[in-house]
Design goal:
Layout (H helix, E strand, L loop, with lengths): L97
Length: 97
């Protein structure tokens, strides 16, 4: 399924999306993962480089402009979350504010 938006620009390795119907961006990425799952609005990663980022259901927002190397997991989201600041705390769906 897809239904609406999706923009990618990869360089080596996996990017896997699932249902979507609105947003998911990722202009760039180089090497490695990025999964997404249901989406329905936003996700956006502009840049990244090497390694994971795994999101989950979303329903608008989650952003990560830049970053590089390593993880960032998330779970349900539904609005905001922005990230870098050295990837916050990498526990599933948790970050220090």
């Amino acid at each position: 399924n897809v239904g609406g938006d999706v923009t990618v620009d990869d360089g080596s390795g996996e990017i896997s999306v699932r249902n979507v119907s609105g947003s998911f961006t990722v202009e760039s990425d180089g090497s490695g993962s990025i999964y997404a799952t249901d989406v329905r609005g936003s996700v956006i990663v502009q840049n990244d480089g090497s390694g994971s980022i795994e999101v989950n259901k979303v329903g608008k927002d989650f952003r990560v402009e830049s970053k590089g190397s390593g993880s960032i997991d998330y779970a349900d989201v539904s609005g905001h979350i922005d990230i870098p600041e050295r990837h916050r705390d990498r526990r599933r769906g948790d970050y220090d504010r």
